[in-house]
Amino acid sequence: MHLHILGICGTFMGSLALLARDLGHQVTGSDLNVYPPMSTQLENAGITLMQGYDASHLQPAPDLVIVGNAMKRGIDAIEYMLNAGLPYISGPQFLADYVLQGKHVLGVAGTHGKTTTTTMLAWILDQAGLAPGFLIGGVPQGFKESARLGAGQYFVVEADEYDSAFFDKRSKFVHYHPKTAILNNLEFDHADIFDDLAAIQKQFHHLVRTIPSEGRIIAPITESHIDEVLQMGCWTPVVRTALQSDHSAHLCSTLLADDGSHFTVHQQQDCLGEVQWNMTGQHNVANALAAISAAEHVGVRVEDACRALSQFGGIKRRMELLDTIHGIEVYDDFAHHPTAIATTLDGARKRLPQQRLWAVIEPRSNTMRMGAHKAGLADAARLADDVIWYQPEGLDWDLSPVIEASSNRAAVFQSLEQIIHHLKTHAQTGDAIVIMSNGSFGGLHQKLIQALKAKI
């Protein structure tokens, strides 16, 4: 079958394209934003990519069009698809119908940490010899690709609360019917489609309604917004995790290093395993506890899960060290929300306590662009010594109040050239620069690296 994917370079749709290819389908795709690492991964997989959304991309007609949730009415390809009566489906529905049937699905949901936790869980199951299938909304370091069908009965999926398509406004995760579900955390996000936190909680409750009574729900003991979801009705055993010792938690951790790079995992008073890895931040310790508990549900011993995580390579764009130039470290991070910014910088500060820490932030997510989180941005970035905010053309609000509210050195620039000039002028040997965006940031990462290399 010839499948054409509209919005193929999105993290979810790109991973779906790989699964469709592995099912034996001919896969092509279109996108406005064709950039690495996803474009490279798809091209290496032999998938033909087309720039833009021209109607001609659907000629001759594919057997099925898979429509990404970024697609809207009025786009040429969408209007042609509808007028020509081409068969179409949402990405989550395709995944549910063609991949997940008959599988034990392990779903990872939450406002933060979905991609990282999904990758951890897939890695643990893989190291345990269970040959899981998986779909990860990013590019993992430990696997060659972000999705695979797998050879066993288990499939690990990043379960996103964003809507499925312009014709299906349900959250993606409602389609997946997981038997094991991680509900990592819950905050207000996606202001472009949700009016308030309660609207997101309603979708999470729809997810809970699909989890069988013989399944398992894993949730941190401190997440009151998750508790409110479960209080709406829950028919599945709930297992709790905690960063500190708590008698009501199934699994707890004890930090052996402040930056989260070394910790033990406990059940009541019994130490069941130890993790020493390259990841940092207490948020990643929390992610690890959830992944370990989910793996335990399908028979992986906690000790074995901890041993696997000690060899975990992480994923791209999560505090990924891109290069070190003249002693200046340049990192890439996918921060898309004030909490994500704060937790990333907390881990970076503890990992690099003596280094001058720069945060270069693009408020690119739909929620950030709308200004829904602007009141918390200055505080979110407070652990950096210097903060550079990017005010791109079209941002719906002025960043000046964020600068005024900052307790550290903060500046706002309107162009990448200004940012690069400022960093090239002021960054010094021993500094660490963390570039934070959920997009390509106009190629700033490599442009900055080249500018620093050219500095005499």
TrEMBL record:
UniProt entry tagged with the keyword Magnesium: yes
Catalytic reaction(s) noted: UDP-N-acetyl-alpha-D-muramate + L-alanyl-gamma-D-glutamyl-meso-2,6-diaminopimelate + ATP = UDP-N-acetyl-alpha-D-muramoyl-L-alanyl-gamma-D-glutamyl-meso-2,6-diaminopimelate + ADP + phosphate + H(+)
Residues annotated as domain Mur ligase central: 108-295
Pfam families in the cross-refs: Mur_ligase (PF01225), Mur_ligase_C (PF02875), Mur_ligase_M (PF08245)
Domain Mur ligase N-terminal catalytic: residue ranges: 2-99
Keywords: ATP-binding, Cell cycle, Cell division, Cell shape, Cell wall biogenesis/degradation, Ligase, Magnesium, Nucleotide-binding, Peptidoglycan synthesis
Pathway per the UniProt entry: Cell wall biogenesis; peptidoglycan recycling
Protein encoded by which gene: mpl
E.C. numbers: 6.3.2.45
Protein family according to the UniProt entry: Belongs to the MurCDEF family. Mpl subfamily.
Xref: InterPro entries: Mpl, Mur-like_cat_sf, Mur_ligase_C, Mur_ligase_C_dom_sf, Mur_ligase_cen, Mur_ligase_N, MurCDEF_pg_biosynth
Cofactor requirements of the protein: Mg(2+)
Function: Reutilizes the intact tripeptide L-alanyl-gamma-D-glutamyl-meso-diaminopimelate by linking it to UDP-N-acetylmuramate.
One of the GO biological process terms: cell division
Binding site for ATP: G110, T111, H112, G113, K114, T115, T116
Domain Mur ligase C-terminal per the UniProt entry, residue ranges: 317-439
The name this protein goes by in its record: UDP-N-acetylmuramate--L-alanyl-gamma-D-glutamyl-meso-2,6-diaminoheptandioate ligase
An annotated Gene Ontology molecular function: UDP-N-acetylmuramate-L-alanyl-gamma-D-glutamyl-meso-2,6-diaminoheptanedioate ligase activity
